[in-house]
Amino acid sequence: MEIKRLTLFAGHYGSGKTNIALNYALWLKKHAPSLTLADSGPAVSPRVTVADLDIVNPYFRTQDSAAWLKEAGIDLIVSQYAGTNLDAPAMPKETYGLLADRTTYGVLDIGGDDRGALALGRYTDEVLAEGNYEMLLVANKARPLTRTVRDTLEVAAEIETACRLPFTGIVNNTNLGPDTTAEDVLSSIAYAEELSKVTGLPVKMTCVRQDLYEELKETIPNLFPLNLQKLYYMLNE
Fold this sequence. Notes:
The protein has 9 helices and 8 strands. It is α/β, with parallel strands linked by helices. It has one domain: P-loop containing nucleotide triphosphate hydrolases (Rossmann fold, 3-Layer(aba) Sandwich), CATH 3.40.50.
């Protein structure tokens, strides 16, 4: 996948946006070229920041992986209320700084459906003005309300209307969490291809749990391995 400075992941609730955003940020840290000026000295590791714009879902947040990101040298922007029992729709002011800083890769985790995408709308003008972004539709055929291409298209249209930013590609993240099998992933390819055909958007990546990657890497193009983030209530297990 071509690397853009800003990568935004949006989709239906529970589609796996947060997991993908975290893993993609780690991938950028290891593989993306530095955005510093060519004459600024020796090559350095790229600067990467994850911005959690999900103000709707309190159960599966990037905040839960803050230590993991810090260890990898990745900055995290979250609401000041993340990790508390106060579910207040407050957007972090640091997001504007990320959009303005052209030397940092930004990975944005957008809230589910149209309600969550409304938060992105306040940043749309800045994103469009720079024009260096991917807006990726995370599609999960295993979720109840996106089992068909038609249903997925409805969700996608609602998101685009809410945030005023068109999708540029598709991420096939069909999975059943830790119960996902190679057959589950393979059976979703036709769904992703049809979604691509109808929308005219390319399938930028198909995500798969890390332990299934070797089995499927020669079969599925643009396969992207994921280490699964734990839900907040699993963190102490």
